[in-house]
Model the fold of this input.
Amino acid sequence: MKTKTWLSLLRAVPIVLLLLTIGCKSTSSFDTQEREIFTGTLVRISSNSEPSCVFLDTTSYEAATGLGFDILGGLITQVSSFIAAALTEAGTTQTTIGETASYNFKASANHPPLCVQIVRGDFYRSEPKNASVLPGWASNAKIATTQWTKFNQLQIHMAAPPEFVFEGFFYPEKKNVFVLTPTYYAYRTSLLNDGLTFDGSRGISIALDIYSPTAASGKPQGSIVLPMGTIRRGQLKCYGELKDNGCTYSLKKTDDTIFNAVQTSIPFIMNLPKENDTPLYARSVITETRDGNAFFDFIGKLYSPTQTSIVAAAKTKAELALSETARNSANIDSETVVVTAQTAYVDSISAASKALNICANADPSHSDFISYAADARKAQLTANLKAHTMGKRDVYSNELIVPLNSSQGTKAICSDALNVQIP
Done:
């Protein structure tokens, strides 16, 4: 019996070896493809010393920098992590937080950050052999061949149509004061891949922290959240114009082009080191909120000073627990902030109504009409920002934001915007 068993095993050896050989060949056959692809989120930041912008025309940016565009909104002076705030508030506002992406880069006060790209999807770990070939889906997404090359130079080697693509640039309003302005985004799939249809939408924001590895405080050098608004699945937005089949964003000296990006961030401070080529690192997250009202509630909580933060800044928990006077004082301070914000919100809506009324009753052929349109647009954006501080939705949707041109269409938008329902 033992002899027959051994003979049977010996006869089976070639079959086993054949199966192992086939298995090895099968593994090696997908080794160059499947095993080199990973799913995740990538963030990239470049400074103006070596700009790596995909959609921003850096030549126009250099020509326009320092013009002192009138950026709307109060300055965010306290540098604390918006990512941490987003993680804290997400659970109470139907908000999903994507994975945190990180990236090391170099910048300084003389060479501040310029462009940021955030891409979520499937990527090759290294540049594929056909990297120079522009895929058909990329062309449909208004990405030109030169821009596809820039993505690969940034080591963003997309292996399939991405779930989300964003590029923005840091506009330097003043020394150490920046505004994050989007140039392009495309949204294909929700974070949870939860069956969101192409008629469905999500409220999307991007939170970004920039750190110095040598900072003793552990706090970011700069932090901002950019509310992108409610975006439909499958929506693509080019904030510039189409050139050579690609989206190109240009800043011009003659136009206050910063207003072309309605979802410009609130100005924020970035404490950059003086030494050139100082190592820094960035962390970013993408957030998605299912309900429109919940989205504005989420953004409002990130921006608005709350009673908790006021109390924490002035008194310790123990002192408040022991002192009724301290509690009353903290409550008064909190109520003052709320009343002040409410007054500013009401005043901003009144100012927008006046400016829109002037625009709606003006003649587009008149030389001052473009000025009236600009005043109305500025007042609208101010009202939207004041609404955010109150945790409310936009007063004026993107379709009702007055464009900067002299036409009957602009006059009609001014008229239509007067009839919005105030939140």
Summary: Residues 307-417 form one domain. The first strand starts at residue 37 and ends at 47. The chain has a mean pLDDT of 76.
